[in-house]
Each structure stands twice: as C-alpha cells, then as structure tokens.
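User: Could you walk me through two proteins back to back? I'd like the raw sequence and the structure tokens for each, with a short line separating them so I can tell where one ends and the next begins.

Assistant: Of course. Protein one, sequence then structure:
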Amino acid sequence: MTRSKIAAFLALAFIVLFCFAGVTATTTVKDTTVAIEMGLPKLLFSLSSGPILLIPIALIAAAAAFIAFIQDEKNVGMLFGFVATLAFGLFMVLFAMEEKNSALYTPIAEALDVAGVKFKKRDVKLITPGYSILTYVALLCPAIATVVGYGDLSKDRRHILKRDLLPYAYVGPHIFFFIIFFVTPAIYGVYAAFTKWDLFNEPVFIGLENFKTLLFDSGNTYYKQLRNGLWNTIKFVVFCVPFCIIVPLSLALALNARPKGNKVFQALYYLPSLMSISTVTLTWRYVFNVQYGIVNKFLGIEANFFLPPYTWIMLVIVTVWWCTGSTMVIYQSALASVPQDQYEAASVDGAGTIQKFFNVTLPNMTYPLMYTLVTAVVAQFNIYGQPDILVGFSNAEANAVLLQYVYENSVKKQVAGMSSAMAVILGLFIMCITFVQMRMMVKNANE
C-alpha cells in the first residue's frame, strides 16, 4: 500500500472514530458526585460552547485530506491533515478549559435528578470534562496522516511543496473565516430551526413543529409575523430594486461622458457606500424630520415621512442613496469595455442617442446588469437596518420586515428556535428567487 493510500485511510479513520468518540464529565453537588458520557456527534449539535465551532473545521479538513490523498496529492493532503489536527486539538484544549461548560450542563442536571439531588443551576460550581480513549486515537489519525504525507525535504521536494501549497496560502485565510463565520453558523442556524431554544439552555429537538406553527397555525402570533414581515420585505424589494439599477446606471452613463469634475462627482457618489448603515439612517432621520428636516423645508411641504405611505418613499431613498456607489462602479467598468466601433457603426446608420443606448450599450451590459440585479435582490431581501432604525415596529408594524421579527424573537424574547425557522423560510425564498435569476443569466449567456 502506498503512502498516499495509508494517509487517506488515516484521514477517513478520523471521521469514523469521531462518530464513536465522546467526552466525559463529572461534578459534585451537595457531596454527591455524578459522571456522564456524551458522544461527539451529539456534542456537535450543542449551541452553547464556542470551541465546538472548531469541530466542523476539523471534519471538513479531514474530508479534504482524504480526497487529496486518494488523488495522490500528498502535499495538499498533508496541509489539510495538519489543519484537521490543529482544529481538533484546539477544540480538545479549549473545551477542557471551560470550568462550567454549558454544553454539558443538561446531561449533568439529568444525572443529578436521577441521583435524587435537589439543586439549582448556581449550585453546579464546576464541571470537569474529559475525553474517551477513542477521542485521543481520533486526534492521532490526522496527525499521523500528516507525517506520512510529509516525506523527505530534499531541494526538489521543497520546490514542489512550495508550488503546491502557495495557492492555499492565499485563499486559506479566506476559507477559514468563511467556514467559521458563514458555513458553520448557517448549519447551526438551520439545525436551530428544528429545536425549541431560548439561547441559554441546550436546544431541544422538536422536528417540524416550528414550521407547522409558522405555516398553518393561523391563530398564532408568529404565523401573523411571518406573513406581515415577508410581505413587507417583498414590497420593499419591488419598490427598491428597480431604482438600485436605474439610478447607478444613469450616473454611470453621465460620468462616462467625461464631464468636467467627473472624478470629483464619482467620489461623491461612491462615498455613501463606505458609511455604516447606522450612520446613514441616523443622518437621514434628521433629513426627513417633520419639524426641521431639510426635505420638508426645501420642498415647502409638511409630509410626515415616518407615517405610511410616505415611509416606503423614505426607506427607498435612503437605501438607494447608500447602495448606488458600488453598483455605479460596476456599470462604469462595463461601459468602458463597450467597443467604440459599434457606436461608430450605429452613427453611420443614423442611430440617435436613445437608439445607441438600447441597441449597443444595453446588449453589451447584459451580464453586469443581471449580476447586479441578482445581488440587489439578495441584498434587499436581507433588509433590516433601515426600517429598524427609522420606523421600528411603529404604525401597527406597517413597515416591519421579516428580519426585524427574527431579531426581536431571538434576542429580546429568547424564542431562538422559532426565529431560526423564520430565517430558514426567508433563506429558501431568496434561494428560489436567485435560482430563477441565475437561470435567466445562463440563458442570456448562451444566447
């Protein structure tokens, strides 16, 4: 058996042993000592301990090492084997350092109840975790796989090692933070949607109960919140997205004509996209103020933009002003790549400015337009800051979007399982819309 095959077997063995490995924990309350065992797969779905987030990284890295070794990419397999060892080792160290581990409290409490001990949570002063033999064996597997894939370090070997691993040095940090801050929270967020969870205790798996309540229990408050929040989100997307395309396209066309001071105007148009949403919305809150706002004073009106139906106008204006800059830069780049000979040919044929725009400019900007349309739709479906800061839940929740309910229920009301189910439904809705748009992009690209 070759070294690559042995290393691949060890990487796979880590994943298999992980399924059977576990942790142990002991505690003493009122002179009664209890001990429990918990499998690592069950611990993986605990949402109460930070070090557990390192486990998905270790598993993903081990799977990548297995694939690399199978394909005889020893250097790449060695790298991922090292990452798996490091991530799993850090988990074991950091998890053991937690004196009162929340992930282990629930089984400890159950063991104390079985022992007949009456206690309160504050009585559990110290939970001492440990690991089964299989856990240490699992840690050794990717470590040995790394050593097996390491080989010698001759001059030629070092050159090949540098060639194979240099690309991962560039993309590695991005992949690491992507897994930590996006993939892992997304997985746990989906899992939380199937649980009853208050953010403080361990989540209790309840299957589809949250979704049944949201979709079918018409007398439930969360049922009404889902429909009101989702409908307001859709309305905002419909109102806002066309202007998020038209306004930056108009500005890009104007700047493409190279007027005097175009660089200054370009910087001014792009500046709002560099600001935080809090800064933008608080500034516009004063601009639209009923008594001393610039809008009412300048237009000579007395409209209250914080009451329907003017609230939608205010929210669209604020969002478009904030988002225009980055989209405008994309359109400027697309306009610069339009072949000038096509404009010259159109002029020879007697085409005017409008005809050139529809017959030359737009056909050459199909992909940038579709790309920005997709990103704008996804971004506006995730609307939260503008309505939350400007109007909140006022006006009988007339402008409350779905993410406001998600935050309100999870953080303030501690109904995290239900709010996660709301977020999953919103995510599925966005995925369906995006899928249709992507199909349109592929169709246009093929044509």
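----
Protein two, same layout:
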Amino acid sequence: MSAIQPNLDSQEDIVETMATPKLRISWQGAFSTVMYFLMYLPILVLTVYSFNESPYSAGWKGFTWRWYGQLFGDTRILTALRTSLAVALLAVGLSAVLGTMMSVGLSRYKFRGKKLYLGMSYLPTIVPDIAMAVATLVFLAALAIPLSLWTIIAAHVVFCLAYIAIVVSTRLADLDPHLEEAALDLGATPVQSFFKVLLPQLAPGILSGCLLAFVLSLDDFLISSFTAGSGATTLPMEIFSRIRTGVKPDVNALSVLLILFSGAIAFAGEYVRYRNQAKKAG
C-alpha cells in the first residue's frame, strides 16, 4: 500500500503540472511588443497633450476640452479642411475611373510597348515626392499653366491613379476570365459584360484602392505646396504654417482627429477586404 501511494502522488503531480498552463513569452513576441510600444508612444503623448490646459506643450497644467472647441471654431482650419476634402474627393474620383480602365486594358489587351507602359504607370509609387513635386512644377511652368486648386487636383490624380491601378490589377489577377467569355457567349455586349460581370467583381478592389488614395491625397504636403496657387491652402499646408513658431495644443487636437479619421478609413478598408475574402472562401 505504501509503495502504491507515492506512484499515485507522482501521477497527480504530473496531471496537475500538465493542467496548469505555462506562460511562455518568446523573444519575437517581446520584440514586437516593444516595437509597437515605441511606434505608438508618440501618438499617445500627442493625444495626452491635446487636452493640456497650457497653451504651450512643454508642461502639463491640467485637463481641458478647450482646444477641441477652439478648433471647430477656427475658420482657417475649416477652410483648409474643405479644400483638402475637395481635392481628395475629386482626385480619387477621377483616378478610380482612369485607374480601373488602365488596369483592365493592361490585363485584357496586348499592344506594342505594353511592358514599358506598365512600368511607367507605376513610377509615381516609387519616385520620391520631392522629385514629383519639382517635375510637376516645371511641367506647369513650361506650359504656362497658372497654379490654382485645379493644378493641385491634377497633380494628385497622377499618384492616386498609380495606387488605385495597383490594387485593381491585383484584384484582376484573381478573377476568372472565362466569366466574361461566358457572358459574351450568352449574348451580352462587351459593354454589358464589363458593367454586369467584371465591374461588380472589381468593386471591392476599387473601393480599397480609393480609400488608400484618399488618405494619401489628404496627407500630401510636398506636391500640394509646389502646385498650389494663391488662396489654395490644403490642411497639411495650414498645419505646417502654424508649427513654425512651435506646436500648440490646437494643432495637437487636430492631429488626434486626423489620426482617428485615418484609422476609421483603414478599418473600413480592412473590413471590405475581409468581406471579400469571406465571400471567396464561401
């Protein structure tokens, strides 16, 4: 009996040890946690100081909502925001149409110089913004085109077009080309096949590309500042003009709102992508 009891005790200890979960932290997890903390720490500090009572960001004087209320009453900020939204919406709308047509043409048709055109169409995504801004300004000056709100929109169309085309081309690569052929065999015209068969399948990719291009256009500073005329001031240009004398809490509050807005757009894009993958899996 005494010989059996130690075995039972040892078996119970083994079962208890197996049942007790062990907390294991790998170095990859620890490294990722530290990196994410360092990445988002400035945003956290920015958010905290947007509620600072002091008009200067150097010291904490107390909690207040005053800067958010003052922000919504600032006519210069609101005017710059309306300008940025107008530029982004118009540029993205034009780029969505042109980028979709370009992607479909490059994917479905063969013509001389196709590879060269394909490589050139993606250049705006890899060329530095300062180079694009200078090139656009020189081009407008050579044609004697006066700088205005429309020159900003035209410049934004150039790089928004490339990003939307990349996303739509990726979506096109996953589609079955036989669906269009089946629609044509059943009596549909090429136009009907495009709008009733191809375009609904491309809609998630077009929407994702538009969301990405919208955030990039809203955030652009260099190209806008080089191509803006008198009276055309976008939101990044207005923010830059204010921080020359120091960062103030109203700029902090505006930055927090922009981060939340961009995060909402990114969440919407991920939701669209998730729904699209769920439909394909189902």
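The chain has a mean pLDDT of 81.

Let me know if you want the two compared in more detail.
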